[in-house]
Amino acid sequence: MAEWEWRPGKDRLNRRNHQGLSLAAGVSVLADPLASSRPDPYPYEATWQTVGSAGGIAVLFVVHTEPARQLDGRVVGRIIGVRKATPHERKAYEEGTF
């Protein structure tokens, strides 16, 4: 199972820009068995977009890296951003078409 990390400064920025949502909220989305992912078109880093349920409370949109095996054997990914899913993204999640 992957571990997730994030940068503290990026977490503060995310909280300020997205109604107090911490990057830690993305962990539950990434654990959602019904979550859907697609490659992010960001050109400078291989990132992914995932939409999923955060503990059945809200549907969130998460940008993250693909988890990779570290030298110590851990599998770690980095959460870059978390926000509430748009109505279109939420519908795509519910219909399984994201």
What do you see in this structure?
The protein is of the alpha+beta class and 98 residues long. The chain has one domain. Helix content is 27%, strand content 36%. The protein is built from three helices and six strands. Strands 1, 2, 3, 4, 5 and 6 form a six-stranded mixed sheet that branches. A hairpin with a 7-residue loop joins strand 2 and strand 3. It is globular. The two termini are 23 Å apart. The mean pLDDT is 94.
Task: Name its key features.
98 residues, alpha+beta, 6-stranded mixed β-sheet, 3 helices, 6 strands, 27% helix, globular
Summarize the structure.
By secondary structure, the protein is α+β, with helices and mostly antiparallel strands. It has helices at residues 8-17, 25-31, 87-95; strands at residues 3-5, 36-39, 47-54, 58-65, 68-69, 75-84.
Number of β-strand runs: 6
**Strand percentage, roughly?**
35-45%
- Helical proportion, percent range: 25-40%
Radius of gyration: 13 Å
Distance between the termini: 23 Å
Order of helices and strands: EHHEEEEEH
Structural class by secondary-structure content: alpha+beta
Give the domain tally: 1
Using the alpha-carbon principal axes, give the shape.
Answer: globular
- Spans of at least 5 consecutive residues whose pLDDT stays below 50 are none
Instruction: Give me the number of helical elements.
Output: 3
Q: Whole-number average pLDDT?
A: 94
Q: Report on the biggest sheet.
A: 6 strands, mixed
